Amino acid sequence: LGDVYKRQVHRALNELSDDEFRIIESRYQHKKSPGQAASRMGISRDELIRLEQSALKKLRTALATWHQSP
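Request: output the structure for the sequence above.
Response:
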């Protein structure tokens, strides 16, 4: 089940835009604060938060759909 879950997470991550992926990577893999991640990307903190929320919604939807399938 672990490999199946990892593949599904990878598929879900591939659905993100480049900016959304970079934000998720920066925030959750590299443990950057919203301000640090925004500065690194050259965008405002508010824009980063908006993109992060969009990315997390896409990930939740993709994983929930997979989890609910038979």
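The radius of gyration is 13 Å.
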